[in-house]
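pasting for ref. prot 1 ->
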Amino acid sequence: MSLQGKVAIVTGSGRGLGLAYAHELARQGAAVVVNDVDEATAAEAVASIEAAGGRAVAVAAPVGSTETAKRLVQAAVDTFGRLDILVTNAGVLRDTVLWKMSDDDFDTVINVHLRGTFTCVREAATWMRENEVAGRIICIGSPTGQRGNFGQTNYAAAKAGIVGMVRTWALELKRAGITANAVIPVAATAMTATVPYFAAAVEAEAAGEPMPAFFRHDLGFGTSDDVAGLIAYLASDAAAGVTGQAIGIGGDRLQLWSHPEPVATAYHDGGWSYDDLVPGFAAAAGDLQSVGEKFPPLPEELQRP
């Protein structure tokens, strides 16, 4: 088992993707601190890990505050004696278009996703540095943070910010031997279950059948378990040289997302005035960058009324 003797915290691991991550880390030998806002859900997750032969303990608390971050790290150290791995997965959605999004809609999502990632990573990285542990920080991003998505101003901001923090942490933690990476999962969740485009895939999973190849291969869309292997890999010693990366995974597909780089560069003697840009911008910039996810048409046999 590649993670034998390691200890991991997985936030938001009571169900869904987070639970799949916790199970895979435990299967690979790590002891796991499970986290969920609901005490019963967290306890059920621990029981399921223990029933499979793993070791786990629950911390029921919402992420975001420094207090919760401290509780998570303390639970790992008090129960299992150390901390090697942190997976920041906890999240919440408050989707609505910009002109209808309230301050609370925005602040709630930013607090859980962005601030919750920051406080938990700060606490974990501090403990790892002080105890000379070459740890693993794995933060969960989203295609929305990479490309944008209609109705998700708050979520897009948080997920884009997480990837920005990961790149910074990779620089700051390098000397300590601690890696920091972002995973961009694409998988069937409660959120995608209500999207008609994914209906055939959701139906197949609910029936215990393989998802159609169109979803797994063409879209890189699969199950929570399809993502969990990458989490375990990045948590292992095998990934010691991988840091500062945004890695997409889903179904049969693995992707390395690029860092933002200039795609066009042009110069104008004396600088670019308004009068220069009006006639010159299109030629200088070239093809503009697209926004949002672009999905191919569903094959006819996968369409639902």
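and prot 2 ->
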Amino acid sequence: MILKRIKMNPGVISGENCYVVQDEKTKETMIIDPGELTEDLIKILDAMQIKLKYILLTHCHGDHIAGVQKIKEKYGGQVLIHRKDENGLRDININLSTHIGLEPITIQEDSRVDDNDILHVGELEFVVIHTPGHTARKYMFIF
């Protein structure tokens, strides 16, 4: 397994973390919380020869979802978010995109996840664990 933490800076927060998880054998890849699609991130993803399966969002805040549309257009992949946070993807008053200096962001998820769901990325397996905190909806994964 390859796990890369990439420090993003959409210009509104002190830099957000985007994670790229890849099964080395199959090249199947999951991107977690893409703050924005920068030239540096494109170079990394292209060098990794990704086969994007999922764009996984831990919650709907604008600084975590700003890059979703461009990444999906370039690499494909399904947008996943916890079902309790899905409305924020389409409501700028919930995702706070304009409140933090971004253009208004509205996107559509492809599927929703729940506590104890299992995601497969190549031969890797991840379990969804609902962990409210930063928002009532944030969750984490164990692999």
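The radius of gyration is 14 Å.
Helices lie at 39-47, 62-65, 68-75, 92-95.
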